[in-house]
Design goal:
832 residues; Rossmann fold; 5 domains; five-stranded antiparallel sheet; 34 helices; globular
Length: 832
């Protein structure tokens, strides 16, 4: 790169595990840098952003969508870390999502200026839940991109009444998790969007709050009284207030000659008009330009908050919108918003949510004009800026900097000093960051620390020992009487593991620490490299000699629950060893950070241990999040063209599930295609020759090498138990296995993850175990909540679960109601 700040930021990301805040003026190449980073970095990364528009621009997904966060304020010290009853909703991740979270090295958050401190803490707690609990953000490196001089986080007064007790400001840098881990700030200086030095100078003075009369005079030269563009000129109006945008949109709507349709919102309870997400009476005409105001909650993710389109069909209650950038028409359905009041329990410090009102309407609004807030991250050739009524930090700067040149701007009203608002908290933070910029010495120190972390972690056998100890306990408990030789083998293996692997590993790590500290350049030190090679050889041999024989057991017991627990423990131990062996194998020819990271990601993303060669390939399900947006759009365009050619719906060519599977898993052969859910032999025969070259070209363009075949080959390094290779057993009652895990101290969520079951299934086990008297309901539901649920059940003994839930509202979960009802059924049975 020819930009020194961008080069420094890239090296901090690639050569260290330090968190990076990449900032700079509008148009300095922050988003371009992100796209280049995604294409070249060896680190496994996920990109998120606070809004749908920002997420689309960054090629990622929204923070709330990926991490399944509630929109309520989040207090890290609270008992549940969220509104009462929402823990299950927040953390109900599928196995694929969990594997992705565990595999990532870098989390990129774009438009960080709009991310509240509590949201960043919620992300940290979610990552810690599935990764390293002892480290902020679970040990994941952060790249935070944004400009604090632009738009600030949105915080309602009632929300700040809660959050203000825990944070000194709503900005991301007030995050408690972020303050526990160091980060560097790299500020970009070169502006690319604008080439006119005079315009750049004006923007800089607005950004820094240094607006003098000469600056205002120069900007107000673009004030054109009564300016009204024609349809063909391509102007979009940016305004500070929703009401102004609404008036413009209403006038443009009225000018259309097509019939008007009105759609009335349904409102229940208390829902103040200032909270309305769209018009209570939504008026539309065919040809109207509209914007979606809510994310699509369906698996298809057909639209997002901020997506622009044209109304192409209206009939009765049917609204069809075609995106302006192209794509399939969307048949829009009504959506629902709630007006919630949040309070903190003084004892538990948990936040509870009280629903005061509900708003139901089609998630659309007319969009010839948009607010400045919606425009952040976008670039226009021509814009009408109506910013005189700006009311918050950064609005005027964002509006003006959307355009490439001053001549593309027309001011609706003149600007004065009152509408250019700054924030002292932001100014203090930026001044402090500017006074302590990172340098080459800081980079070298962090780079050495990162290298030490990866190399020493390579020889960390604590996770292996933990899995082996668990499996060994189950073997001794359930198989020792039937298979005494097996127990003897385990005792021999355990006796050898300590002195030959664990103890040697601790001493070897200490030796590596000393060598790294003494080396002038550890990454190219031949002595250090030789020690790593020798270490990899030694531990590979010891693991294959001592550990792998312990994982080869095919012994069985008639106790189905015990057999299932044994199989699960053996599989988890095998997967842990698979990662360790693969990383050691990669280090036999010398330690390479890129090879280490690629190997780790490949192994962690493997969904299952290798099946027998003769077995039918199992189908792979993927997350709904699009990991490769560019490929997704290519395949979707091809699907649309093929469907048009055949005159059939697009889903008959390739289902959305298959489209997501191909996009995320990047198959390289027909066999790999066939493993993806939604793809059958007919698709292979008809379209494999078209789709696979598209994927191959995308891989080549982006330097991607991961494939399902590679992952399966790596999985062969660890033998799979004979029990795991057998055909899947019929569904059976496994409540006792769940009980055993709960009695070990696991929560229902942890038990579900341990067993690879859906959380709802495990909650069903808990309800039945409570009914049998094997568990106490007080362990899962607080006494005060038990009392509320019990009183309602007493008064309405014949109501269904859904009816009870509807009355009690979102403050109570289905699981809590099931558990209390099960306890009362047991008490009623005992009393007979």
């Amino acid at each position: 790169m020819d930009n020194p700040q961008l080069d420094l930021a890239l090296r901090f990301i690639e050569q260290t595990s330090t968190n990076v805040f990449l900032t700079g003026k509008a148009g300095t190449g922050k988003t371009t840098f992100l796209h280049e980073l995604c294409a070249r970095s060896p680190k496994r990364m996920i990109v998120v952003a606070p809004t749908g528009v920002a997420a689309l621009n960054a090629g990622g997904v929204t923070i709330h969508s990926f991490f399944q966060l509630a929109f309520a304020p989040y207090v890290p010290e609270s008992e549940r870390g969220g509104p009462a009853g929402r823990e299950r909703e927040t953390y109900r991740f599928g196995r694929q999502k969990i594997r992705i979270i565990r595999s990532i090295d870098l989390l990129v958050i774009d438009e960080i200026s709009m991310v509240r401190a509590d949201v960043l803490d919620a992300v940290s707690d979610t990552l810690r839940r599935y990764r390293d609990r002892s480290k902020p953000f679970g040990g994941v490196q952060l790249l935070m991109i944004g400009d604090l001089r632009q738009l600030a986080p949105v915080v309602r007064d009632e929300e700040w009444e809660l959050l203000g007790r825990f944070y000194d400001s709503p900005y991301f840098f007030a995050s408690k998790a972020l303050r526990q881990t160091p980060f560097v700030t790299v500020e970009l200086q070169r502006v690319y969007r604008q080439q006119d030095d005079r315009f750049i100078g004006l923007l800089n003075r607005v950004r820094d709050g240094r607006v003098d009369p000469a600056t205002l005079e120069a900007l107000n030269e673009r004030y054109v009284p009564g300016f009204e563009p024609s349809d063909g000129e391509g102007y979009i109006t940016l305004t500070a207030h929703n009401r102004t945008a609404k008036a413009i949109n209403e006038a443009r709507l009225e000018a259309l000659e097509t019939p008007q349709h009105a759609f009335e919102a349904q409102i229940e309870g208390v829902f103040p008009e200032y909270l309305d997400p769209t018009e209570r009476t939504l008026k539309l005409r065919r040809g109207a330009q509209v914007m979606f105001v809510k994310n699509d909650l369906s698996p298809q993710k057909r639209y997002y908050n901020g997506k622009i389109g044209i109304v192409t069909a209206l009939a009765g209650d049917r609204i069809e919108v075609t995106p302006t950038e192209g794509g399939e028409p969307v048949v829009v359905e009504p959506a629902e918003w709630t007006n919630a009041k949040y309070v903190i329990d003084p004892e538990s410090r948990a936040i509870s949510e009280e629903i005061e009102g509900v708003f139901r309407q089609y998630p659309l609004r007319t969009a010839w004009a948009i607010t400045i807030h919606k425009s952040q991250g976008l670039t226009f050739d021509r814009a009408i800026v109506d910013a005189a009524g700006s009311f918050s930090h950064g609005q005027v700067y964002v509006a003006l900097s959307r355009c490439r040149n001053l001549q593309g701007i027309v001011l609706r009203t003149p600007l004065d000093g009152r509408c250019i608002i700054g924030d002292e908290t932001v100014r203090t933070f930026c001044d402090e960051a500017a006074a302590h910029p990172p340098d080459e010495q800081a980079l070298a120190e962090r780079s050495r620390a990162y290298y030490r972390e990866l190399v020493c972690g390579l020889f960390d056998f604590v996770p292996v020992r933990r899995e082996l100890d668990r499996l060994g306990r189950l073997v001794e408990e359930h198989l020792s009487r039937l298979y005494p030789r097996l127990l003897e083998r385990w005792k021999t293996g355990a006796a050898a593991f300590g002195p030959q692997i664990a103890d040697v590993a601790r001493k070897f790590e200490a030796q590596l620490e000393r060598l790294i500290a003494a080396s002038a350049e550890c990454r190219t030190d031949p002595l250090l490299d030789e020690r790593i090679r020798k270490g990899a050889e030694y531990f590979l041999a010891r693991c294959r000699e001592i550990v792998l024989p312990l994982l080869e057991g095919t012994e069985e017991t008639d106790d189905r629950d015990a057999q299932k627990a044994l199989e699960n423990a053996r599989q988890q131990a095998a997967e842990t060893m698979k990662v360790r062996l693969a990383l050691l194998e990669a280090a036999r020819d010398g330690f390479s950070i890129r090879r280490h990271l690629e190997t780790k990601a490949r192994i962690l993303l493997e969904n299952e241990t290798a099946a027998s060669p003769s077995a039918k390939p199992s189908k792979i399900a993927v997350t709904d999040d699009v990991l490769h947006p560019a490929l997704f759009e290519r395949l979707r365009a091809w699907r649309r063209e093929e469907a048009a050619e055949l005159n059939v719906p697009a889903y008959t060519v390739m289902s959305q599930k298959a489209l997501l599977g191909i996009t995320n898993l990047l198959p390289t052969s027909e066999a790999e295609l066939l493993r993806i859910k939604g793809i059958g032999q007919r698709f292979i025969e008809k379209y494999a020759g078209t789709v696979l070259p598209v994927v191959a070209r995308f891989r080549e363009e982006n330097g991607l090498s991961l494939s399902l075949t590679d992952a399966a080959a790596e999985a062969q390094q660890v033998p799979v138990s004979g029990a795991a290779q057998k055909e899947k057993k019929p569904k059976e009652d496994t409540r006792q296995t769940t009980l055993a895990l709960l009695l070990e101290g696991l929560s229902p969520e942890e038990a579900a993850r341990s067993r690879g079951l859906n959380l709802v299934t495990v909650e069903g086990h808990v309800a039945e175990l409570i009914r049998r008297g094997a568990l106490d309901v007080g362990r899962f539901v607080p006494d005060d909540r038990i009392a509320v649920i019990s009183r309602y059940i007493d008064a309405h003994p014949d109501e269904k679960l859904s009816e009870i839930k509807e009355y009690l509202g979102n403050d109570f979960s289905y699981a809590e109601i099931r558990f209390v009802r099960s306890a009362r059924e047991r008490n009623g049975t005992d009393g007979k």
